[in-house]
Amino acid sequence: MSFGVVRFNEMKKYIGGISYKTLSSALKELEADRLVHREEYPQIPPKVEYSLTERGKSLIPILDGMCEWGNKNRL
Questions:
Q1: Where is the HTH hxlR-type domain (predicted)?
Q2: Is 44 domain-assigned?
Q3: What pTM does this model have?
Q4: Exposed/middle/buried for 42, CB within 10 Å: 0-12, 13-18, 19+?
Q5: How many domains does the chain contain in total?
């Protein structure tokens, strides 16, 4: 979320430890749920960028709250 617009390989690098297939599948699901926007540019080599939609951005406070709760309630 803090990176704004990100290309696939950049995202894979930021996340680390995720396979191409898993990341691709997750992005397709997030796009289908309208949480992520995929922008494809008709050029060679192909260029695809991903960004959060407004709907996706609306989840940030909820996810932040869940992380905060998790940190406070670790055993």
A1: 1-75
A2: yes
A3: 0.80
A4: exposed
A5: 1
- The pair phi, psi for residue 42, each rounded to 5°, is -80, 85
- Asked if residue 30 lies in contact with residue 23, where contact means CB atoms within 8 angstroms, the answer is no
Note the residue count of the chain: 75
pLDDT of residue 1: 54
Determine, yes or no, domain membership for 11. yes
Helices (H) and strands (E) in the chain, counts: 4, 3
* CB 36, CB 27: distance < 8 Å: yes
- pLDDT tens, the chain, 75 aa long: 567 899 999 999 988 899 999 999 999 999 999 999 999 998 988 899 999 999 999 999 999 999 999 999 987
Rounded to an integer, what distance in angstroms lies between the CA atom of residue 16 and that of residue 7?
14
Considering the domain boundaries, does residue 1 fall inside one?
no
